[in-house]
Amino acid sequence: MQKHIVRVYSSKEHLPREEQLAWKLARVATDEAPIDEEAAAMVINRIIDNAAVAVAALNRRPVANARTQALAHPNPEGATLFGLPSTQRFSCEWAAWANGVAVRELDFHDTFLAADYSHPADNIPPILAVAQQTGRSGADVLRGILAAYEVHISLVKSICLHKHKKDHIAHLAPAATVGIGALLGLPTEIIYQAVQQAVHVSFQTRQSRKGEISSWKAYAPAFAGKQAVEAIDRAMRGETSPSPIYEGEDSVIAWMLDGPDAVYEVWLPEPGEPRRQILESYTKEHSAEYQAQALIDLAFRMREKIDDFEKIKEIVIYTSHHTHYVIGSGSGDPQKYDPNASRETLDHSIMYIFAVALQDGTWHHERSYAPERARRPDTVRLWRKIRTVEDPEWTARYHHPDPSKKAFGGRVEITFEDGSKLVDEIDVANAHPNGARPFRRPDYIRKFDTLTEEIIDRAERDRFLGLVERLPELTPEEVLELNVVVPRDWLTHAERDRRGIF
Known about the structure:
2-methylcitrate dehydratase activity, 44% helix, EC 4.2.1.79, MmgE_PrpD_C, 2-methylcitrate dehydratase PrpD, MmgE_PrpD_N, MmgE_PrpD, 502 residues, globular
């Protein structure tokens, strides 16, 4: 990997475009690096993972509404939508939108955490949609996804958005743009201009993940993907963008991030270096915010030693800064203790999640968030006895530069009414690459089967899995079939409607 120093330049200073971060990100797309076999296998895993969580979410309101918007934009040379036959095709930016919402809705696909947060598999819907509309092969798709992951993870390691209350899609938009550029084999100049536009329009505040969290949490990544498609299209027509987008005197670093004196170190692959950073990311075994994954596993373990939950006086979770302030009591959000809160809010409340996991010993993407589950009196009592505390040691481990030493868990102290305590801790989730049971291909397929078994039949399941496992060999015609089709009578909102403008 090669270190790049990124800082703000005054308008009087000349910064050659080849020295700008946006250009260096674009070069990740255009450099002809060899494909690493292990990384390629992980791309296949993540496509399976995306399909699983998307199909399970198809009839949820945000996903159905995004689909009806896409249905208003048919294109016989376009891309496919999750759930619908591949003979029905739609403009790729709207397919990226609808499929992106489906992937994100359950908060159940992959993650990478470092200086900031990310769900790198959010890059896949726009890349696949553009591939389908432009007739690209499976090998092209593979190269595009690997480039997107490389850029996304590099930015998340280097530039913190959260401390400035900016949403993490500001790193997703340029990553997806680079991935589409790699897919299409575009020149560096075009990708550079598109990256700058994508960055310029993707900075949003984190209010989308604060307080009463709305369905926009699922829409935001799809919005970034749609912007990436449009940015590439515009740049391919010869249009330019604000420059330099990162380093400019009035641009994002100077006014939205660490300010005019900021200096960032961004590490990107050397020329010819295989794109392997996808292997540092990890998926979810449980449908909840990633910082909750390990603590759910810990709750399962600790419950075996508890005879009576009513005898619990207090539960304190000692954890990292991010966990405490984003999904813990450090957020100051009263909604995180509200039995009437939205699903989106509950999956960002470690207090709720730990209470339910402790009582039930299982976690389900629907039942664990059902209104009747959240309002159960004994759960509410336990829930309100739980709080989080930031522990500097866990914060340091969260940010450790060595992936093998990163930790996303915490230490839990349960105090009972008689004064006795139960104490345990966990570093990473069981499914994490360094966990007790790291996810492998069979685990991704098992997750797919669990989420889709009551929706699709065996033939459709075998067709899709057999196809995706041959990704590097797929023809453009086969790439069009990389879509899970569900029975028409199961799918709600399968037809265009007139409730909105489209």
